[in-house]
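Retro notes, item 3 of 5
We never archived the inputs for the pyridoxal-5'-phosphate complex last cycle. Fixing that now. Sequence and ligand:
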Amino acid sequence: MRYISTRGKAPALNFEDVLLAGLASDGGLYVPENLPRFSVEEIASWGGLPYHELAFRVMRPFVAGSISDADFKQILEATYAGFAHSAVAPLKQLDANEWVLELFHGPTLAFKDFALQLLGRLLDHVLQKRGERVVIMGATSGDTGSAAIEGCKACDNVDIFIMHPHNRVSAVQRRQMTTILGDNIHNIAIEGNFDDCQEMVKASFADQGFLKGTRLVAVNSINWARIMAQIVYYFHAALQLGGPARSIAFSVPTGNFGDIFAGYLARNMGLPISQLIVATNRNDILHRFMSGNRYDKDTLHPSLSPSMDIMVSSNFERLLFDLHGRNGLAVADLLDGFKASGKLSVEEDRWTEARKLFDSLAVDDEATCATIAEVYKATGEVLDPHTAIGVRAARDCRRHLATPMVILGTAHPVKFPEAVEKAGVTAPQLPVHLADLHEREERCTVLANDLKVVQQFVSAHGNRGKPL
Ligand SMILES: Cc1ncc(COP(=O)(O)O)c(C=O)c1O
Ligand SMILES: N[C@@H](CCOP(=O)(O)O)C(=O)O
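Structure as it came back at the time:
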């Protein structure tokens, strides 16, 4: 499989190099040159497979030529063996034909574990083979950070730097990152917001002099391997609900547009999906695009669903690439304009195409809490605020009652006690492996929102805490 950049100028790479790349050299994101497509018969034949075996079948074409079948099977089995539920991603019924796909049974209790448990193992495999050390820089609004640290903490060849917005993640999320101690793990609290952190990661790819020759790797969903692993659970959910013989609808709590983009790819790979709903919080740039062709920067508003407090959605670029007939130069032009003006809209026919692909809704904090309370009253289930946004959007945007509706349950409610309690519901207890989280020692450095300061820090600590 070869991968090409959404901005049309970077060289095409194989999977191994894309895994180690992050952003393409022209500033674009990598996407497969040709998406694999499965027949309905082939997808149907996967019914009843354990999660890791399904994952092998869905992802095999993406890694072909870089990772052997035997190695990939072994890596996948180890990846999903660490999940706390035997089904890995169980479905829980909320209402008639309405289900939550629980993606929070991995070690850090959010959907990010599906990809980052795998990414850590893939990196380990490839770096050991190459005898190479890398530096990882990641930005997090709360969940990617802990999942990345958990996924990579045992990788001998990696130093990982995770930036989170100071005082803007929940206490549980922060502690899940800062209490993992190791001389290759570096938590940085940036005096800024998530977009500032994300921007610094991207800028570091553009100018890597501070790394003195060490390769920079991404763990955010700009890294193709993240998206690839997130495609699998759409197949998994559909197969349990009568797919592919029938269509399934999905509602996806959305921030960086990675998770729902994986659903869009699952549909393009042959899975019958009748509806994909983009569910945002008050930070609703994607909803404003889908509903009015206005992808315009706004102020970032802190919300009760902090992981989705994102102003600019990285993976939107991958959609723009498809909407523009995979013309990278046209995408580069559009994004140059966006960088200069903070505004972007597309030609009318392209926007009409986007509207056919996605429905959308923005849900504020009040409606989020009301939905947590509504679901708790009806079912006894406690939702986290991000999943609640998905449920609200599913209920308000649903087209066909006869089609099963699956809401992606992206995080465990225990990570967001503040929102749950605001909804009048008692927050659950931390699971056994995190029971003493609030007593553990924390290690974190607060830094100014300044690229040079961050790069100096990385340079001074990037070799197991010592200078590069
Ligand atoms: C709990 C939770 N839900 C939803 C999202 C949104 O996912 P995406 O950024 O892939 O759109 C995130 C973070 O991105 C998250 O951490
Ligand atoms: N919600 C994320 C933000 C980063 O998104 P990513 O999917 O691109 O890593 C988080 O919790 O950190």
